[in-house]
Design brief:
- The protein is α+β, with helices and mostly antiparallel strands.
- It has a domain of 166 residues.
- The protein is built from 19 helices and 26 strands.
- The strands form nine sheets. A five-stranded parallel β-sheet has the order 10-2-1-16-26, with helices on one face. A five-stranded antiparallel β-sheet has the order 19-20-21-18-24.
- A hairpin with a 5-residue loop joins strand 13 and strand 14.
- Helix 5 runs antiparallel to helix 6.
- The protein is globular.
- The structure holds flavin-adenine dinucleotide (FAD).
- Flavin-adenine dinucleotide binds next to helix 1, strand 11, strand 18 and helix 19.
């Protein structure tokens, strides 16, 4: 749909997560010369959605995250948009971060931990800084294969150094060299010519056979040797699968076929050993995408092979750094600067506006009305949502508070006294104002983008919505998550963890909360207190999730869920000895390691930390279970002429729930409207 009437088209964006922000940035891009009059309608007091964070106003200025976030080096569209947004902020010497790179902390290593003969052993994976930077064209299929084989060569070199196996390792060397040779000699024909792919597959299979024989002949390799074998096996099986299934040069049909197979089954089918598929490295991949149906970690994890491989290929095709951590709260680094840019461009954000219903026109062809519940009214418009957090050297960070700024609201005193959570679906709060009815025929909007994920969209969908909507509601699954933030008065070294400075760890299958980030970098933005903690750990994992939502009148559901999240946190601490061996007292976690300004004792110290159950329909992590991509709609396939979808849950390309997916989807929705599309970077369907 190209809107080119010469009159500013009014676009209503429903929801204010990352996908919505990306769509709004693109629609308000100066390139479109003000063709779009954009308004975002967002419930509650902040933007960011799953990436939202808030600063504690009681204990200034603790960061409370919705869930920990890292940005991968292949997030080309996200980096491009964020670079542009940062560049557009007016110069301000007090602003701590002038570029997105300054606001992030680059990483070159990732950790997992495995149990071997009853002992827990950390496993650090180093992923070196690569030439170039995020946003440059991705490697071609042949370059990607060569990168994987180069790493295999390096691994075999390390096996070589295990004296006992030197002779066999040199055979491996010859085979990997042969495979690299095959790839480089036929690179220009590779992928397009199935026959030539078979030559490479044959070379890779020889390498795979050698590796398996080698492993069988050496059942008691050192841990390093065993891990190298697992990593090579994983890389080689992925490469064989990618060539055999045509996924290095993906087409929609090829990816759709692979998406009917589960990722581990696909690896096995292409020759990966059981030891590899069951390794903690593969487990960590699943854990980072909360891949457990209904959050049940005792069930096998589940990810589509096609989507899984596309993401794996993009991820390992990174330029610069493999991933980046946040240098402050996710909302401060991402949503706050974008909000400031949008506002300067004239985009309106209506906070405290909860979309309750989409109403189609009589002929059912378009959205005619949008019913919106007004949760609160502002004393003076516009609502000013940000606060400033002081830092060292006269710097200050614009940030989101963890609650509405009550003094700006007519109902502020009541909201505060009743401790109302306006983001909760189960809040007992009743709207103080009659609903707002946006009407297309009154010129309230022309075009609508819904950036609300399926579990929440279902609640506002028209009864008469096309059958495809039912398919997406029934098949695109999402899962509740729990996160715990621990402020500690022990440094990382004092915890007993020595394997990796500044760790990001996943795959800790001793408990439900299996992912741990060292988030100490954000502490410098928690000033305002006399005493300060020295370390911050963020922990998260899936929570058990029932498919049916509890009724909205179950006002106690959030409290019960918070209790469950707290229990998961307490269980994590009990199980944390493999990570933090020095934080034990009488076989238990030593609570005195937790920071407590008023020196609380025992469990009370844990209760002073922060934990959250992400249970709201739109806060659940969107999964990519086998065979579900076919229920993901394209941005412009809504069944209504003036309605577009965005969100990490649409068919945006890689189809895994991630920040980059949200950004791409937002750009796709905006592109469908403007008629002057912004190119999508690193689109798998244009890989060469
Ligand atoms: C715990 C956790 C950790 C994660 N970690 C990472 C990570 O490290 N790296 C990464 O790349 N990705 C990560 N993700 C995924 C990432 O957060 C999401 O992919 C991304 O934020 C999705 O953005 P979105 O715009 O699609 O949806 P959302 O963020 O869900 O946005 C939806 C918006 O709509 C609003 N809304 C909902 N209903 C209504 C309504 N009725 N009226 C008005 N507004 C409404 C919501 O409040 C929200 O603002 C993580 C997700 C979770 C849950």
């Amino acid at each position: 749909m190209a809107v080119s009437t010469g009159i500013r088209a009014k676009v209503a964006i429903l929801g204010g997560g990352v996908s919505a922000l990306a769509a709004a940035l693109e629609l308000s891009d100066p390139r479109h010369r003000g063709a779009f009059d954009v308004t975002i309608y967002q419930l509650g007091w902040r933007l960011g959605g799953k990436c939202a964070s808030g600063r504690d106003l009681d204990m200034p200025f603790r960061i409370k995250e919705h869930g920990p976030h890292i940005l991968f080096g292949f997030y080309d569209n996200a980096f491009a948009l964020l670079r542009e947004a940062y560049a557009e902020l007016p110069p301000d010497p007090a602003r701590p971060f002038n570029t997105i790179e300054e606001a992030l902390v680059p990483q070159t290593s990732f950790a997992t931990i495995e149990q071997v003969d009853g002992k827990w052993l950390p496993w650090v994976l180093s992923l070196p800084k690569m030439p170039g930077e995020t946003g440059e064209p991705p490697p071609t299929g042949a370059e990607w294969l060569t990168r994987i084989l180069d790493w295999a060569r390096e691994g075999i070199g390390q096996l070589h150094s295990e004296a006992i196996v030197a002779e066999l390792a040199s055979d491996g060397h010859r085979l990997v060299e042969a495979a690299i040779h095959a790839v480089s000699n036929i690179a220009s024909h590779l992928l397009a010519e199935p026959v030539i792919n078979h030559v490479v597959i044959a070379a890779l299979k020889l390498l795979q056979r050698w590796l398996h024989d080698f492993r069988e002949a050496h059942p008691s390799l050192s841990d390093d040797g065993r891990r190298i074998c697992i990593l090579i096996d994983l890389g080689v099986a992925s490469a064989i699968g990618a060539l055999a299934d045509g996924l290095l040069l993906p087409t929609r049909e090829r990816v759709a076929a692979a998406n009917e197979v589960e990722y581990s089954t696909w690896l096995t089918r292409h020759g990966a050993q059981r030891e590899t598929v069951q390794s903690t490295v593969v487990r960590a991949m699943y854990d980072t995408v909360f891949a457990y149906p209904q959050g049940d970690i005792t069930r096998p994890p589940n990810v589509e092979a096609g989507s899984g491989f596309l993401t794996q290929r993009a991820m390992l095709g990174y330029h610069g750094f493999i991933f980046w951590k946040m240098g402050a709260g996710t909302g401060d680094v991402v949503a706050a600067p974008i909000y400031q840019v949008l506002r300067a461009r004239g985009v309106k954000v209506e906070f405290f506006h909860r979309v309750d219903a989409l109403v189609p026109s009589e002929d059912g062809g378009e959205i005619a009305q949008i019913r919106i519940g007004r949760q609160a009214s502002v004393k003076r418009s516009p609502y000013e949502p940000l606060i400033q957090v002081p830092g060292g050297s006269d710097q200050r960070l614009d940030a989101w508070p963890d609650r509405p700024l009550y003094d700006q609201l007519d109902q502020g005193a009541a909201l505060k006294a009743q401790q109302i959570d306006l983001e909760s679906r189960w809040t007992p709060w009743t709207d103080p104002l009659p609903p707002l009815l946006l009407d297309r025929s009154n010129g309230d909007f022309d075009v609508v983008i819904t950036a609300i994920p399926p579990a929440a969209l279902k609640l506002i969908a028209p009864d008469s919505a096309p059958a495809s909507w039912l398919g997406m509601f029934e098949n695109i699954a999402s899962v509740q998550t729990a996160s715990l933030q621990l402020w500690m008065n022990r440094s990382l070294a004092q915890t007993g963890w020595t394997a990796l400075a500044d760790p990001t760890l996943s795959g800790f299958d001793a408990c439900q909360l299996d992912t741990w980030f060292d988030a100490s970098d954000v502490l410098k933005w928690e000033g305002g207190r006399d005493q300060l903690p020295v370390q911050m750990a963020m922990i998260c994992g899936p929570m058990e999730t029932s498919i049916a939502l509890p009724p909205q009148t179950d006002h106690d559901f959030p409290t019960r869920s918070q209790q469950s999240a707290f229990q998961l946190g307490a269980t994590f601490l009990q199980a944390s000895a493999p990570l933090w061996p020095a934080l034990r007292a009488n076989q238990n976690f030593d609570m005195s390691a937790l920071f407590s300004p008023d020196n609380a004792q025992g469990e009370a110290r844990l209760r002073e930390q922060y934990w959250v159950a992400a249970i709201n329909p739109s806060d659940r992590y969107v999964q990519t279970l086998v065979g579900t991509s076919r229920f993901r709609p394209a941005a412009n396939k809504t069944g209504y002429r003036n309605l577009f979808f965005c969100g990490d849950w649409i068919d945006y390309g890689f189809n895994l729930g991630c920040f980059e997916g949200a950004v791409i989807s937002g750009l796709q929705a905006a592109n469908a409207i403007t008629g002057d599309p912004r190119p999508i970077l690193n689109d798998p369907y244009s890989w060469r």
